[in-house]
Amino acid sequence: MSGPALRKADSHSSIHEAALNEAREITEVLEGLLEKGHDEKALEAAYIGVEHWESRTLQHAASEEEGLYKEIAEESPEMKEAIIGLTRDHELLRLLVQEIKDRLLSEGVDYHVLQRFQALILVDELHNQAEERILPEH
Known about the structure:
By secondary structure, the chain is mostly helical.
């Protein structure tokens, strides 16, 4: 069973917004460091960004998939397609984070890494909007 914060639209929205704001801040710092040519600090910021996405957003996503999404699908079979879409969004986030990690190891930090962090933010924004349309119904 999912925790009470996942079940309440306001609490759930606050969780999303806090994590997304932190991700935006880290990404802005990374961008500034890249623009100034501070590659060593940019690499450190990128790893902080990866850790953030893994520990905050992806951990939250796993909790949703294990609890909330299963509960919604069981209670409302007509929501199955929406749940599949939300789960696919999570998979895209996981793939982008893995691409960043792989690129950091092979190429180091660069604008391609920054683009993937920006893509993470966009996918997560769209995902959160879709999820918040579904959550009030349950």
